[in-house]
Amino acid sequence: MQGVFVSSLALTVAACSGGGQQSAPANNNTGAGTQPAAQPATPAPSGEPQKLVIYTGRDKNIFEVVLPKFKEKYPNIEVETLEMGAQQILERVRAEKANPQADFWWGGTQSALSTAADEGLLEAYKPTFSDKVPDLYKDPQDRWYGEMLLPEVIMYNSEVLKPEEAPQDWDELLDPKFKDKIVIRNVLPSGTMRTIYSAMIFRQGADTPEKGYDWLMKLDANTKEYTQDPTNLYLKLDRQEGVISLWNLQDVLLQGKKNNHPYDFIYPKSGAPILVDGIALVKGAKNMDAAKNFMEFLMSPEIASQLAKERFQFPARTDISKDDLPDFMKNLELKPMDLDWGVMAAKEKEWMQHWDENIKGKGKK
Fold first, then answer.
1. In which residue ranges of the chain is pLDDT below 70?
2. Which one of 44, 116, 226, 259 counts the least CB within 10 Å of its CB?
């Protein structure tokens, strides 16, 4: 779990916001149906400050791109952000159901957001960009939307391996030539690694997890070490104590392109697990209009393209012009692995417990 980070910015709505925005009534529908597409809520008149409380799983380097621009557009909305993990956000929103303290959930896994929606914790609202996000990456009842996509890929040290020398697909990781060349972030505390390992079991057959367990045992035999956290993973790769890992594509790009680590990636030929990082309005939010304005702003093509260029985010929106995306995104096909996320969510705890108790560190024996 991440610790809770609290920050606030005095952000608000300009007196004359322009843009011809029309009023959209707050959606108090408690049913499951979708709402008609709406315009962002009408800004408060001059001198009438609003507040917006955001619970977020996103990093501060994302805040520094988005929040100052939101401040420029809405200078009278005072924003308070609390940073924590997606599971922690779910637990907090659940505990506050009778008296919601948050207005907006920014950065949650598909599993956490779906659970929250099923528990009646999220507001149904159909935003203006609804038809720009594929059904695969949003709630069918408009209770949450995907903001960005996180493909899980094969990562390697490009100072040691040429692209053609790295594993080209998941099964190649089991090749004996990669024995002791693989380092893995400790699986149980990591949402990324739990997703990858659960996907490896699922692809062998969810009804017969023994086949997936056998696959992970062979991967364990080639794994030199499980590192405590991402920092130690990067350190091991930099020192060439291992030269291959499994990780999410955004972090590989951030570390390689912004932080100058010698990392590159292989997008597996058979497809990759693609996590959806999403957003939602908290049901019963005290500042619903401000939350709707932030949702529309955050999902705008301008912000999506800026985050793609500066923070390597793959937008869930499909209408972002390729001209507004970085070069590496223009020709990269995000082929998803065929997964049943409902089954994955239901089985993950059981599968990962079995891996921890019966597989981890035992492949070489």
1. 1-47
2. 259
